[in-house]
Design a protein that fits this description.
The chain is of the alpha+beta class. It contains 1 helix and 3 strands. Helices cover 22% and strands 24% of the residues.
Length: 68
């Protein structure tokens, strides 16, 4: 199945950064085309289901926020 996403492309010094507007994923390249191609690969990996060989350990993480 194919889906179409929107990429926002900006230039940061010598690199082009392509960021998907629908999903928080970004990639970079030395040209706009390379950045968009790399973003496509990153999106494909994002949607590839994990191939777990072992169940992960799950643990809670407690974080204090806003304390001074």
């Amino acid at each position: 199945m194919k889906r179409t996403f929107t990429a926002s492309i900006t230039r940061e010094n010598a690199w082009y950064v392509a960021q998907c507007l629908e999903i928080d994923i970004a990639s970079q390249g030395e040209s706009e085309d390379e950045a968009v191609f790399n973003l496509g690969e990153a999106l494909a990996l994002y949607f590839t289901p994990p191939d777990a060989s072992a169940l992960p350990a799950l643990r809670p993480v407690e974080v204090e926020i806003g304390a001074a």
